[in-house]
Amino acid sequence: MDPAGPEDLKLLAQGVRSFVEAELQPHEALVERLDAVPDELFREIQRKALAAGFYALNMPEEHGGGGLTSPERAVAEIEFGRVSRALGVICNRPAPILKACVGDQIETYLRPTIRGERWECFALTEPGAGSDARAIITKAVGDGDDYIINGTKQFITLAMRADYIITFAVTGVEDTPRGPRKRITAFLVDKGTPGITVTPLDVLSNRGMKSCIISFDDVRVPGRNILGAEGGGFAIAKTWIFSGRVMLAANCVGLAERAMGIAAQWANTRVAFGKPIGQFQGTSFKLADMATEIHATRLMVFDAAAKMQDGTITQREASQVNLFGSEMVGRVTDNALQILGGMGVTKDLPLERFWRDARVERIWEGTSEIHRDIISKDVLREFSA
Amino acid sequence: MKLLVPVKRVVDYNVKVRVKSDGSGVETANVKMSMNPFDEIAVEEAVRLKEKGIATEIIAVSIGPAACAEQIRTALAMGADRGILVEQDGVVEPLTVAKLLKAIIAKESPGLVIMGKQAIDDDMNATGQMLAALMGWSQGTFASKLTIEGDRATVIREIDGGLETVSLSLPAIITADLRLNEPRYASLPNIMKARKKPIETLKPADLGVDPTPRLTVLKVEEPPKRQAGRKVASVAELVDKLRNEAKVI
């Protein structure tokens, strides 16, 4: 395979990149300063993205989405990695779990989201349940045809912008051969429903995107708003989790490439002790490592994307690409900042932001520790007698 | 009406070009290549004419190495319908390009050729005019506005001191200037479709044209390095230096 990505996907990469460079990147400094995307700018970018078709790329064509395959999606996500997330997310790639919409849900939620008329947010994580998702305690209790939801969700990105919340809640406990197990159900909850409060958090990474706390206080949701089946929330979330991990690594490739580009330009032009600092091995070897690690991640991303497409990807492979990609972008942005020296920490250049943004990659789609746990268990299982 | 749009593969406008060490030309190995920006404007204009129902088919042509297929694909992603690649390695001079385009016109009978006014690599600004002469067709060069009505084209040209409006009979050659339009993004559906659109590959011999260059490049060199500026303490010193050192006043 071509390391730059499959040859026939070049055109797609070019298309997304020219959109990202012309329509998104110029607003990064503003968004960073305001810690928000002004509404007018948001709508303007969304309108352009919709017109050019760089919207809901990952959703099925039959519902008006871009219908991209996983390798195509990976190519696009590498390019979206080249811009701050607060801006990149305006070209919404809705949560794949929405593909589980049936009946009226398709016209009420799925299609309007693909058309850019509605926004979803994905609410699984809670103050006491992150990587250990089964530990969630938000409850949904049946009441006639409705459910009453109570609980708190945390670190929910785009909750300010969203007008409905894909909410995971416990609807009961079942006995299994391995002991009792919570029945977890996904609900489509309109954000305007009484009892919902959204509070933004002030965070280190991805300024302008807003990570939020959502509290549910006796929130009444009709039973027809269950996404998938009662107790089947994790069954439909599973496919989503793999794609999230692979695409995260793709984003990391884009961000790392951009950071390396700036560092390499600096190394070529900044003179110290009479020569460009790129002539010193302390600098040049850092660049060599960056280029090599980025290349390796690219290959892992395309391998994982191809396996996702034919349905053979394993949990271990998804964790490996996520782990390697997120740690790679941490090293690359850190070394790129180091090459820029004092300029690296100023707000005049975007390196300090890359460095901050890279930090959350090792946390939010599963921490590095969780991924190592998954991978190592699989290795041990493979070699057990 | 069929439209023919020639597109050239050139060093991307963002690249800082370097002269080859032997002085034979500009380094193009491992350099980002793109479609000539003026040709992109020409493609955009053609696509707009098709959207208005004036054009029925847009054929993008590129002449050069096999990699020119990339620029044809870009044109296809913007909305062109099919491509023709005339494969020729090495230097292809404007007159050769014009002769090859003439042969393609004979095959395809377009009603209009829209092309960039010049390529940003060699800045020849010659191919459109040569093609018009070879065909005996009208030409509207440096177009900043194009209107087609029936069998006539009205072209507004940017000239020294103002705008000139010319009326041409079709078929004609139009060369696009910077302000003719702002090219669109290739949209996702068009990018996906472009991968399936056909590109026909030909050799100059298939079109009966001898591509041997008639011009010889003697030397390509970097422009002289700009001297650093100097600060002066007073107007009197400035005038003195301009008069006695620079000898410009």
Q: How do the strands and helices of this protein lay out in sequence?
A:
The complex is a heterodimer of chains A (385) and B (249).
Chain A: H1 10-24, H2 28-34, H3 39-52, H4 70-80, H5 85-88, H6 104-114, E1 120-123, E2 139-143, E3 146-157, E4 164-176, E5 179-190, E6 196-201, E7 211-222, E8 226-227, H7 233-269, E9 271-272, E10 275-276, H8 281-309, H9 315-340, H10 351-359, H11 368-382
Parallel strand pairs in A: 1-4
Antiparallel strand pairs in A: 2-3, 3-7, 4-5, 5-8, 6-7, 9-10
Helix pairs in contact in A: 1-4, 4-7, 4-8, 7-8, 7-9, 8-9, 9-10, 9-11
Chain B: E1 2-6, E2 9-11, E3 33-35, H1 37-51, E4 57-64, H2 69-78, E5 82-87, H3 94-108, E6 112-116, H4 127-135, E7 138-149, E8 152-159, E9 162-169, E10 172-176, H5 188-194, E11 199-202, H6 235-244
Parallel strand pairs in B: 1-4, 1-6, 4-5, 5-11, 6-10, 7-10
Antiparallel strand pairs in B: 2-3, 7-8, 8-9
Helix pairs in contact in B: 2-5, 3-4
What do these coordinates show?
The complex is a heterodimer of chains A (385) and B (249). Chain A is α+β, with helices and mostly antiparallel strands. Helices cover 46% and strands 18% of the residues of chain A. Chain A is built from 11 helices and 10 strands. In chain A, strand 9 (271-272) and strand 10 form a beta hairpin. In chain A, helix 1 packs parallel to helix 4 (70-80), helix 8 (281-309) packs antiparallel against helix 9 and helix 9 (315-340) runs antiparallel to helix 10 (351-359). The longest helix of chain A has 37 residues, at 233-269. With 249 residues, chain B is of the alpha/beta class. In chain B, 27% of the residues lie in helices and 27% in strands. Chain B has 6 helices and 11 strands. In chain B, helix 2 (69-78) packs across helix 5 and helix 3 packs across helix 4. Chain B starts with a strand and ends in a 5-residue tail after the last helix. At the A-B interface, helix 1 of A face helix 2 and helix 5 of B.
